[in-house]
Structures are given as structure tokens and as C-alpha cells.
Amino acid sequence: MAVRERELRRHCKRLLRQLDIQPPLRVDELCRKLGEHRGKPIRLVPWSLPIPGPFGLWMSRPDEEAIFYQKETTRVHQDHIILHEIGHILADHQDDENAGDEFPGLGPDDPHDLVARGFRRTCYTDDYEREAELVATIIQEWAVVIDYATPRATEDAALGPLRTALNPRWGWT
After folding, report:
1. Does residue 34 sit within a domain?
2. How does pLDDT run across 140-160, given as a tens digit for each residue?
3. Do the domain assignments include residue 131?
4. Distance CA 58, CA 65 (A)
5. 24, 45, 146, 150: which has the highest count of C-beta atoms within 10 A?
6. Position 171 in a domain
7. Residue 117 and residue 114: Cα distance in Å, rounded?
């Protein structure tokens, strides 16, 4: 797992640099840019998921990725849930696309269909869940570091170069 963890860290940091993610981290903006980068939009759907149960679900469809996240929780927790589901995408985990076939009455755009498929998913192992959680943690760690290390705009434009020199931005290194 240590080798895979290093690979995931490098992959995430490289991708975040390519996407030009700027502080403060906005998860919806990350999803928009990631969707554009991959050529497949990521739709974020707040949903009152049953408790107990999963906090989030990711479904890969031919024309989009759909991430359902618990509507009944804090914004910080919602962001982490979404980042966890993005972790499945970035770690190249596979969605069990046939998991909801036994729900024929629901159309392809009906969110109930996607949620039903999510609850039927059986392909993820503990390793997959750890990898997805690792990706979420990597993104959140670096978002905090970048936000902390990024110089704040000064009201006096003449002080900008001095402030930058004294507080360099490290970025997604």
C-alpha cells in the first residue's frame, strides 16, 4: 500500500497543478475543472440519504459522473464526502454499472435510479475505501497548506512585491 500511496499523492498533486486550483479550495470548482479535464462533467447532487447508510455515492454514466452526497450534514462534511467520491474517480476505481438493473421503472435521469445503484454496489474493497479516503485527505491537506502559504492581497499595491517576497507561495508541490 505504501507504493500505491506515493503514486496517489504524486498523481493528485500533478493533477491539482494542471487544474490550476487556487485557494481557498472550492470543491464545486474542483469538480467543474476535473470534469472538463476528463471530458465528462461531474454532477453534484445533495440528497437526504438514509441514516444509517453511506454518506456519499458515485455513479459513472456514459455522459457524466454523478456524486450524491448527504444533504443533512455540515458544508465541511459535505466537501469531504465529495472529495472521497472524487478519490474513487482519481484512483480509477470501477463503478458497478449493472448494480441497479433490477429497478426498470426508473428512468436514466431519475436520481432514485442512481441512488438505488449506489446502495447495490458491492465491488469496493476496504483497500478501495482507504484509497478514496487518502485522496480526499491529500486534497484537503494541500488546500489548507496552500491557503495558509498564499499571500493575502494587500490594499497598498506598492507593498505587493514585498509581501510576496516575505511570504512565498509553495503551491501543489
Report:
1. yes
2. 887 777 666 655 555 667 766
3. yes
4. 7
5. 146
6. no
7. 5
**Residue-range definition of the domain harbouring residue 30:** 2-166
Collapsing DSSP to helix, strand or coil, 14 comes out as helix
Q: Is residue 105 domain-resident?
A: yes
Rounded Cα gap, residues 135 and 90, in angstroms: 8
- Residue 4 CA to residue 90 CA, distance in Å, equals 12
- pLDDT tens profile 88-134: 888 877 755 544 443 333 345 555 555 555 544 444 557 888 888 88
Counted domains in the chain? 1
CB-CB contact of 38 with 18 (8 Å): no
Q: CB-based burial of residue 19 (10 Å sphere; 0-12 exposed, 13-18 middle, 19+ buried)?
A: middle
What's the CA gap between 165 and 118, in Å, rounded? 49
Q: For 46, list phi and psi in degrees, rounded to 5.
A: -70, 135
Using CA atoms, how far apart are residues 159 and 141, in angstroms rounded to an integer? Answer: 29
Helical segments of 39-125, H only:
75-90, 111-120
- At residue 173, does pLDDT exceed 60? no
Q: Strand 56-61 and strand 42-47: pairing?
A: unpaired
**Could you report the per-residue pLDDT of 11-65, keeping only the tens digit for each?**
888 888 888 887 788 999 999 999 999 999 999 999 888 888 788 888 888 888 8
Residue 56 and residue 58: Cα distance in Å, rounded? 7
